[in-house]
Each structure stands twice: as C-alpha cells, then as structure tokens.
Amino acid sequence: MSVPEASVPGDDVAIAAKNLRKSFGARTAVDGVSFTARTGSITALLGANGAGKTTTLRMLTGALRPDAGNAHIAGHDVVTEAAAARTLTGYLPEAATGFQHLTPGEFLIFAAEARGLHGSHAIAEARRVIGQLDLHPVVAQSLGTLSKGWRQRAWLGQALIGDPPVLILDEPTDGLDPNQKIALRRLLRELAARKAIVMSTHILEEAEELCDRVIVMADGRITADARTRDLVDGSGRLAPAFTRLTTQAAS
Fold it and tell me: Would you give the DSSP letter of residue 197?
C-alpha cells in the first residue's frame, strides 16, 4: 500500500531529494528516492535494517555521491555546491565515533573552527552548545572514556555548532537513557520551529511523539510519505502501518 506524498515543493522547502540512487557492487541500496522536507518540520525516516535510510542520509549530506539523481539543501546541490550545502547542514552520523582523545569541549571548539569560527567566537559557540545539551558534567573528560549516551550527545553537539538551518540526524537518541531522550526530544521540538529536521529512528514511539511526517523505506524505496496522523491507527500507533508497508515491499 502506498500513501500519497505529503509534501509539495515551495519556498520553505529546505531539503529536496529527487530520484536518488546508490549501489554498492551488485546491491542497490537506494533506488529512486524522492522527497522534500520543509522548515518548521521534523520528518522521520523509518525502515528495517538495510532499508536504505543511512545511505539516503549520507547522500543528503554529501558524504556519499549518488549514482543518479540529485539532492539540494536550501537550493544548493550537495555535489556541485557541496561547500554551501554543508555550511547549512548539521549532520549526526550513525554510530558516531572518533576523536577519542579530545574532551567534549575541545571537540566542539574543533567543530566550530571547521565551520569557520576562530578564537573567542569558536569558544563562545562551543559553550553555547555545551549549555544547550547540558554537557557540563563531562566537559573535561575525554570522549574515549565516556558512556555511549554522553558520546552521542557530544556528537550531536557538533551538528548544532553554527546553528545550521537543516539538521540530518541518524538515530539521534541511540544510547541515551530515558531522561536524556526526553530532554533531547524537547530540544528537537524547540529547534524545529525554525529548522528542517530529518531523522532516522528505529523507535516507532519516538516518531509518533516527535515527528509530524513519516517516510517509510523498504528495499531502498519509499513505500509511504505521509503526515504521521494519517499513518497511525486509532490508538495513535504506527506499528500496524509500518509492518504492512515494510512486509508488503518484501513479498
């Protein structure tokens, strides 16, 4: 069952993907994916493992070059205008790791410098994000000594450096404890008032609670693109629609 696409291109479209395709050897990971995301919205990208979610997000950020199709961030092509598109995008990769020897404070200053801020400006921006994510308890510890949840928050912090208008987040609550998840969801709601956010998640309840729109992927294709309220059942649950849309694609 396919659901009509929920979005229509307009002036407030911040993310636009058109017919994106990507293969790895003989395996097609993403096969003709098209959608848009608007400022003021949170869009969930749902699907089973291997559905193509992460590959799609990586193409949106310019981390992977599409085999075909194109993607734009605020009108900038992510391949031919990569620098401009990256400037406007905050990206949290899947299972983010690295920079183990840096503290969260040092890591965020590094991220600020990578975005063109230097000296006191980089320090001020790092401090802003540390406060935004309440990283103070671990700000002086190295990333390599932190729990998965604290590392995830630090990596989310680098996506927020520079206050970019577009956020692309791959499993942003992965590793967070319940209180951290609640705080992050509250922050994302606040940020969504002036940003376009696309996030992948395996937690259907998270999409129900947080996202106003849902894109379901299966076998590299979109099987539904609709408002969340149009996909949930009478109890407000996405599970029945998700199961139907992902198992039908496989049959």
Answer: E
Rounded to 5 degrees, what angle do the CA atoms 78, 127, 96 make?
45
Count of C-beta atoms within a 10 Å radius of residue 41: 21
Residues in a beta bridge with 216: 46, 224
| Angle, CA 164 vertex, CA 160 and CA 165 arms, to 5° | 125
Over the stretch 76-87, which tens digit does the pLDDT of each residue have? Answer: 999 999 999 999
Task: For the full predicted model, state whether its pTM sits above 0.85.
Answer: yes
Which of 57, 47, 92, 98 minimizes the C-alpha distance to 78?
A: 57
φ/ψ of residue 22, rounded to 5: -155, 130
Q: What is the pLDDT of residues 147-201, one digit of tens each?
A: 999 999 999 999 999 999 999 999 999 888 999 899 999 999 999 999 999 999 9
Q: Which class is domain 1-88+164-251?
A: alpha beta
Which residue in 94, 38, 88, 33 sits closest to 66, CA to CA? 33
Chain region(s) in the chain for CATH 3.40.50.300: 1-88+164-251
- Are 2 and 223 within 8 A, CB to CB? yes
Strand pairing of 213-218 and 221-227?
Answer: antiparallel
Closest alpha carbon to 155 in 118, 198, 184: 184
